[in-house]
């Protein structure tokens, strides 16, 4: 009887694992990105730079990305909420990439008298995913919590 229960549990675990593997293969996108300090002529800016890949057969009109920002101590430097949500309005053809860059200065706050532009402060992008894709044909794909990709 114990062997049957063990086999049933193992089979269920295998089915869950396989469904998550297949879900990743069917995902209509891939995304990667990073946060950087970018010095300009007068002011340094904190930027998110990313690459979105449209893995579907439809043309993307816009996509919404979500990610968490952490400083070197593991704390969130964000104002109000603990994640960044950015809608990127760029046309991306099927099986194509789109590189994009967005300023994060308005999302960050300074603690005490320190500046978030200091050279030694580095920020990390955590749990990056696409929460919504709007296609040129009017259809939509959504995953508000990033379960599809992770």
Can you walk me through this structure?
By secondary structure, the protein is α+β, with helices and mostly antiparallel strands. 17% of the residues lie in helices and 41% in strands. The protein contains one helix and seven strands. The strands form two sheets. The protein has a four-stranded antiparallel beta sheet with strand order 4-3-6-7, with no helix packed on it. The protein has a three-stranded antiparallel beta sheet with strand order 1-2-5, with no helix packed on it. The two termini are 35 Å apart.
Write the topology of this structure:
Layout: H1 2-26, E1 29-39, E2 44-54, E3 60-70, E4 84-88, E5 96-103, E6 124-135, E7 140-142
Antiparallel strand pairs: 1-2, 2-5, 3-4, 3-6, 6-7
Distance between the termini: 35 Å
Mean of residue pLDDT values: 81
User: Total number of β-strand segments?
Assistant: 7
Q: Structural class of the helix and strand makeup? A: alpha+beta
How are the strands of the largest sheet arranged?
Answer: 4-3-6-7
Report the total helices: 1
Radius of gyration computed on alpha carbons: 20 Å
Basic shape: flat
Q: What share of the residues does DSSP label as strand, in percent?
A: 35-45%
**Largest sheet entry:** 4 strands, antiparallel
Low-confidence stretches: 18-24
Quaternary organization: single chain
The proportion of residues forming helix, as a percent range, comes to: 10-25%
Task: Give the SSE string.
Answer: HEEEEEEE
